[in-house]
Amino acid sequence: MMLKNPAAKYRPFPAVPLADRQWPGRAITRPPVWMSTDLRDGNQALIEPMSPEKKLRFFEMLVKIGIKEIEVGFPSASQTDFDFVRMLVEENRIPDDVTIIVLTQAREELIRRTVESAMGAKRAIVHVYNSVAPVFRRVVFGMQQEEIVQIAVKGTQLIKELVAQHPQTQWGLEYSPESFSTTELDFSKQIVDAVSSVWQPTPANPMIVNLPSTVEASTPNVYADQIEWMCRHLERRDALVISVHPHNDRGTAVAAAELAVMAGADRVEGCLFGNGERTGNVDLVTLAMNLYTQGIDPGLDFSDIDAVRQLVEECNQLPVHPRHPYAGDLVFTAFSGSHQDAIKKGFAVQKPDAIWEVPYLPIDPADLGRSYDAVIRVNSQSGKGGMAYLLAQEYGLELPRRLQIEFSRAVQRVADETGREIAAADIHALFSREYLEQASPWNYVSHRMVEDSAHGVQIELNVARHQAPQLLQGSGNGPIDAFVNALGLDIRLMDYHEHAIGMGADARAACYVELRVGNGATLFGVGIDSNIVTASFRAVVSAVNRHLAATGAKEQAIAA
Ligand SMILES: CC(=O)SCCNC(=O)CCNC(=O)[C@H](O)C(C)(C)COP(=O)(O)OP(=O)(O)OC[C@H]1O[C@@H](n2cnc3c(N)ncnc32)[C@H](O)[C@@H]1OP(=O)(O)O
Ligand SMILES: CC(C)C(=O)C(=O)O
User: Fold this and answer.
1) CB-based contacts of 547: which residues, under 8 Å, 6+ apart?
2) CA angle at residue 125 from 119 to 131, to 5 degrees?
3) What residue owns the CA closest to ligand 1's atom 24?
4) Whether residue 81 has its Cβ less than 6 Å from ligand 1
5) Sheet containing 456-465: which strands, arranged edge to edge?
6) pTM score > 0.90 for this model?
7) Which residues of 406-420 are buried (b: 16+ CB within 10 A; e: fewer)?
8) Signal sequence span per UniProt (predicted)?
9) Does residue 82's CB lie within 6 angstroms of at least one atom of ligand 1?
10) Which of 235, 266, 271 is nearest to 253 (CA)?
11) Which uninterrupted H or E stretch holds 325?
12) Which structural domains are found in the chain, ordered by start?
């Protein structure tokens, strides 16, 4: 049960004494070095760890999107992990510009096995860690600070010794004081300085210092303060690559990573779509795309984000949430009417090479290989804009505004009745039933028309009335006028729109007429035909039939 007084059990995170912090005034202007730990931290958190075959597919996808540093496993943990690293090395599957990273605890036998796993690679980074926070020192290790420092120092000495025996590989070192974010800063500095004094990095051969929020325990600004503090106080700063490894326990890993980069971090470790222990590692996709939407090339290519997501879901056997930033099924979808309206108007004025300014869409879905078709979907929360957009996009029908209002009532009725989403095809079927398919009592069959400047338009019209053929004649000052006169009905044309559907020989005309039939309210009719005049006749017949069906009026009541 939740406590009335949580302070009895939990304490607030202390602030970092850094009154002159610089990071709040900085902006991110270039991407950090990306390191994917999907195959290690992500994999170790899965219900079923990946098979070698899945790991390889994942690895190749990471390479394809442009990740240059890939943590490929914890080789001393299992034969599977060890063999996977050997396979990458022996089968020459690591591209020249990609560096693999192998993780190990700072324990002799594990370090030996880890170095062995990567031998023969062109480049490899041995990533060694030990936990340094007070609770780990007390509870897990039962050790004092100096003994904890010795674990890291001895581990580093052994790695240095072992890698020197295998000069054919260009080795690097990454050191992680695990649980850094809940550790006293001066102790973190002490242990990192001790490790770097053994490794002796240089600016040309830097050492990676990875400062994880192993468990996210504070607001992101505190993490940023911790990173800035370390950047200012560490020895040999110019020979260190400062890396961050945020977890998402408070749901703020992305913010923590971004503020940490502002605070001086050069490198970010994370997983695609935020997989990883508990609530996950920081999501590299969101970080990269956040940069992209600021006009900064993240150096990663998510042009086909659906394919990336599909592969990750398959390998992790975990779904990506439908509202996951940039990648979720629903992130480029609007159901609510006012959003749909604004998006539709935004698309209409957005120029292909201009700055992106479509309301409610922080990014052009096309940049991620997502299609516009999926942007707008219709349910009971939608207004006219959504269905109008779908009819235009999918069927080339540009409904005039007042027809949109009229037809949206029919769509709304169906949405309310079913309580479900209505697909574009269903909307089109409803539109066809409502405006195009009512062939009774009147049905247009054919016409002959003569036009001269002295007498206007003369028309001879074949129609079916209650399925019985009739030949009618009429004249008027234009085709529609002549047609209406031939029908002999009390019709006033209030509004008229037309447009082409498609191009070339297959083009058809869509015609929308708004009529007042008898004394009734105005209503629309729609006609589609390869001939523009015929389309307008069909539209008039559509409106008349709709009026009769809607009002139940007898035909005689609307005779002219
Ligand atoms: C925050 C992170 O994600 S760190 C990465 C975590 N990932 C994994 O643990 C996945 C792979 N791990 C494994 O397969 C195993 O844990 C192994 C092979 C590494 C070690 O297995 P085991 O020797 O059986 O130890 P176990 O798993 O119980 O780990 C606990 C032991 O490691 C010790 N230990 C933990 N971290 C470290 C470290 N960095 N350096 C030295 N010793 C360590 C603990 O003190 C404990 O020792 P104890 O048994 O003497 O009390
Ligand atoms: C090994 C370290 C970097 C880790 O995974 C963590 O602290 O979360």
Assistant:
1) 515, 517, 518, 520, 523, 553, 558
2) 120
3) 77
4) no
5) 442-452, 456-465, 468-476
6) no
7) bbbebbbeebeeeee
8) none
9) no
10) 271
11) none
12) 32-316 (3.20.20.70), 337-436 (no CATH), 442-558 (3.30.160.270)
R_g (Cα) of the chain, nearest Å: 34
Residue 275 in marked binding region? no
For the chain, what is the total number of helices (H) and then of strands (E)?
A: 17, 14
| Structural tokens at position 143 | 């050790």
- 406/396 Cα distance (integer angstroms): 18
Burial 84-110 (b: 16+ CB within 10 A, else e): bbbebbeeeebeeebbbbbbbbbbeeb
Bond before 400 cis per omega within 30 degrees? no
pLDDT along the chain (560 residues), means of 10: 97 95 98 98 96 97 98 97 98 98 98 98 98 97 98 98 98 98 98 98 98 98 98 98 98 98 98 98 98 98 97 96 94 87 92 95 96 74 88 95 94 92 95 95 96 89 95 95 94 96 92 92 96 97 94 78
Strand 442-452 relative to strand 522-529: parallel, antiparallel, unpaired?
unpaired
What CA–CA distances, in Å, run from 520 to 169, 221, 355, 465, 540?
A: 87, 66, 48, 21, 15
Residue 269, SS3 per DSSP: strand
In 11-162 the beta strands, taken as DSSP E runs, fall at: 33-36, 69-73, 99-105, 123-131
Confirm or deny that 247 is annotated as ligand binding.
Answer: yes
Please check whether residue 289 is in contact with residue 260, taking contact to mean a CB–CB distance below 8 angstroms: no
Residue 151 beta carbon below 6 angstroms from any ligand 1 atom: yes
466 a known binding residue?
no
44 lines ligand 1 (CB under 6 A): yes
